[in-house]
Design brief:
Helix content is 83%, strand content 0%. The protein has 15 helices and no strands. It is globular.
Length: 416
Amino acid sequence: MNKILPIFLLRVSGIGVAYVLTLFLTNSLTVEHFGDLTYFLTVTSIMSVFVCFGLPTYLLKICSLDRLKNKRKINTELIHASFIILINVLICIIVMLILKSVVNVDLPVVPIILYVLFLSINNILYEVLNAAGKQLLSSMLQIVVYPFLIVCSLLLLVRMNYQINVVNFFYIQAGVLFFLSIVSMSQIKAIYTLKVDYNIKSFGVIQTYKLAFPMMLISTVGLIMTWTDVLVTSILFGDFELAIYSVASKVALLFSLVLTAINILFARKIAYMYSQSDLNGIRKLIKKAWQYSYILLLPMVLVIYHSSGFILSLFGAEYINGIHILAILSISQIINVAFGPVGYLMSMTGDENSLREILFIACLINIVLSFLLGAFYGVVGIAVSTLLSTLLWNSLAAIKVYNKFRIITLVPYYKI
């Protein structure tokens, strides 16, 4: 608990800063313009997953195993990862230019590409820091410093009488992420004594592509499932409903802080214990994660239950309409926490393909249900679809984990 609590508190502080940012944007933009910004952020998040190509999780696994044994291998993998990111960014630029010219889609290409590039780089660097045992630093940069600098930049923009719009917002984010990537890279260079090597072997890059590819598929399917509700809402309804849903979703994400803190601390330990065939150690780790989760989860449930209307009203009177959405999405997040780190447990122990299949099935069901329930019950139906798909994939993953390790992640109180 002495390691989890600081990480959890850091992420709570970061969420507080992020909510200040959201409050600032919802009060500076109309509901429709905020919905438009939400749509662009969704698209860029999906682009970032393609650019990252599963490298964050892959490098977390590699660096956790080789941190003390093979620094040269880590150095090589980081160089390969940088090369892969540049290739994928070039592909994104080509696709965006084609869409802009052929389909006549109005896309701010330069700020979006810069944002996606530095977001992808930072996602990789954060996981490398986690693998090096620098979870507090990683959390500080990712969840506290990042939104704080964006808020300060936006306030400076307003003071200089500049207009806040999608283009300016993405330029600000890209600038902040560029600064954070320099900070992260300086720390990683000191830990692993990295050396720049311009002799990139095509075979090594291809091997990294192949090894990271399963992680990329998992990340892609997982992100599509995460953003399905937002995308379907934007298709079936207008920007007003999208903004309402987006704010309710951000408030419900409070519960995910618990599982995120658990994953940050335990992911590298799971990878190392599995490499040592220490299944008993993994069982103890999961039991400890379950205990910590519920200690941290209970007060959050009480706060949201008693203050949901008040919290939503902070973003504006219109957002109180999302109270039912918030209730359903909160239950969905509680389910995620209750099942524990089943996703990381599978991906860190060589079960990436099974996790990918489970997420793919749940993703398809989520898409179909979102359109069906959304058409009949509106945005509340879409929230219900998210809840059902979350329950489905967690249940299937928990069954798979039990069959392999005899670990019950939902209530892991058994004799070890």
